[in-house]
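Appendix B. Worked example

We walk through a single record from start to finish. Start with the input: the chain for GNAT family N-acetyltransferase, Maritimibacter dapengensis, length 301.
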Amino acid sequence: MWRLTPDDARLDAVLRVIHAAYRDAPESPSATMLPERLQNIARQGEVLVISEEDTPVACVITRPSRDFPGTLYLGTLAVAPEARGQGLARRLMAAVMRIAHSRGEWGVSLDTWAEETRLIAFYGSFGFEAVGEAEGIVAMTHTFPDRVKHSMSAEDPTEPLIALIRESFAYMDGRVDPPSSMHRLNAAAIAQQISDGEIWIIGAPDAPEACVFFTPHPAALYIGKLAVAPKSRRRGLARTLMKLAETRARALGFDCLTLQSRIELSENHKTFRRLGFTKTAVTAHEGYNRPTSITFEKRLG
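Next comes the structure step. The output line below is what the pipeline stores for this chain.
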């Protein structure tokens, strides 16, 4: 496996591999990629190539992602028709994952056509999950497992976690009544949560990028304080933690997830419904004679 440079004499041969691999997908920009475009990609990122007897037969393009900062973008995964069935695509995928991990990226991202169910399943076998879809294009991300850790042991600091939650929930100020419980969050409350349940984070304990609280209830695992730092949004981190909620629920013997959302936060209600949650109750905080909160549940199959 080698890296293509902008002035490599084999650039045209690599381009022929790309064109051949995408000839059945004329709508893809890769099907008509020009030499100048491939040269520019080689300058901005990397083009990994596999050759057989000095002839390029497979390649993949990588560069820092613009849509999911902190990930390495994977694109134009191409295998010449005559070289398929040899595991070359998997070799290239594994190489990109190693590169991203070695550089300290939190994961890898890619786009694929929504109708390409075979490709979506292929990427899924590497741990990629769909995090969005627009105009027939599915965005997928893979978060490295060691970026997610069961945190808040006695040795972990509480101040960064509290700061993350307050920054993430700041948009609620002036919108929800009564005010968010984040204002009452302190080291003692964190210690109580560790005692009653679990706290998981993405990122280092002293600089968390996202977090979630899990608390066992009699019939379900309760999800609370799902927070993502503003600078880390649109990376699929919330979905990663919600998927983790399902894993932890099953491990703890639950077949149901539950959470609550303030009545005013209609955009959050839509997000939870997209994640498979249904509205099951409307409640009021103590001292209020009007609904202030909605309970959502998700049954696990």
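Two observations about the output. The longest strand covers residues 55-64. The radius of gyration is 23 Å.
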